[in-house]
Amino acid sequence: MRPSRVLLYAALVLASACASSHANDNELRAVEPKAKRNPNVISREELADPAMQSRDAATAIRMLRPHFFSYRGPTSFSGTSGDTHISYDYGPLQPLSQLTGTNTFSLVEVRFLTAEQATARFGLNADGGAVIVLVSNKSAQ
User: Regarding beta strands 85-88 and 41-42, do their DSSP bridges make them parallel or antiparallel, or are they unpaired?
Assistant: First the structure.
């Protein structure tokens, strides 16, 4: 009778090992690798997160990509500011304070342009970079 208990115990250990191994395989398959996000672009999917939808655009952007609003200091001896500006749909540059009046529901995408890219696009006033805000409905600003 003793060998049958040992055999039963061995069968239970083997069965539980196989079951836990099978569960781990299923867990590994369920975890999909996240798509690599672009550090200079906030997509519509990121803005659609319920935690972001209850916030104004300035707060949501600061939470998702804080480096968009980093002060970069004066970029020349002429005293230019180095401040980051915003542009709605590649329109004229505006101060960052304009973002507080924009809700995240209307945002399609937010892009950051480096100082070089912004200066090439908007001129010397964009020496601190620019945040481009693409909106689906301009009346939502």
Answer: unpaired
Q: Which helix (H) or strand (E) holds 19?
A: helix 2-30
For residue 79, is it left (φ>0), alpha (ψ between -120 and 50) or beta? left
Q: Which residue has the higher pLDDT, 75 or 111?
A: 111
pLDDT at 132: 95
Q: Same domain for 18 and 50?
A: no
pLDDT of residue 13: 73
User: What are the angstrom distances between the C-alpha of 2 and each of 5, 8, 9, 10?
Assistant: 5, 10, 11, 13
Same-domain check for residues 76 and 107? yes
Residue 51, domain extent: 41-140
**Model confidence over 28-54: pLDDT tens digits?**
455 555 567 899 999 999 999 998 888
